[in-house]
Design a protein that fits this description.
Elements lengths: L2 H10 L11 H14 L13 H15 L29 H11 L6 H17 L12 H26 L1 H5 L5
Helix pairs in contact: 1-3, 2-4, 2-5, 3-4, 3-6, 4-5, 4-6, 5-6
Length: 177
């Protein structure tokens, strides 16, 4: 594997979290929270606009990764892994979780409680896929991989904005840090 392939794999798998034997999507979402905690400029205007090219890049990288990356089949964790929801969405491709989690985080203050709530809400929306989000997976190639998580991110963001409107101190709580 040359350096360009290594970099592409690191991007598509969100620094290789996609190869986590248990819950690669959750691992990628958690790492996204950590990365964006230390890059607060990506959470404000105009840095938050980077989500748009990130979505398009994610769709392009996901399209390239379909069929190339597959979940390890013979591992000691095989019984713990869920079956892949669709053959066009390999588990190691987690750039979609990065983008969706980023969208959810845009709706909360830079505080531990806000990040934790956005993380949990995004994971719920990503797993359950309510309000027709599941139908977005049927889009062709990398778009189906990306857009369902973008929808989950927007759904989580809306819930976070509603909670933040009624309970602003709750999401701004930083545990004295």
């Amino acid at each position: 594997m040359n350096i360009a392939q290594w970099i592409e794999r690191a991007i598509v798998t969100v620094l290789f979290t996609g190869f986590s034997p248990i819950s690669p999507g959750t691992a990628a979402s958690a790492l996204t929270c950590v990365i964006l905690w230390f890059v607060p400029g990506a959470m404000q205007w105009p840095g938050g606009l980077l989500i748009v090219p990130a979505t398009f890049a994610g769709a392009w990288f996901s399209t390239r990764a379909i069929g190339v990356l597959s979940a390890p089949r013979n591992t000691k964790f095989k019984s713990l892994r869920r079956p892949n929801p669709t053959p066009d969405d390999p588990d190691p491709v987690t750039i979609d979780e990065f983008v969706g989690q980023w969208i959810a985080l845009l709706a909360v203050p830079h505080a531990i409680m806000g990040f934790a709530a956005a993380f949990v809400m995004f994971r719920i929306f990503d797993v359950v896929k309510p309000f027709g989000i599941d139908k977005l997976q049927s889009l062709p190639a990398g778009w189906g991989i990306m857009v369902d998580d973008v929808g989950a991110g927007f759904g989580a963001a809306v819930v976070m904005l509603i909670i933040g409107y009624f309970f602003p101190a709750l999401l701004a709580y930083n545990f004295g840090i």
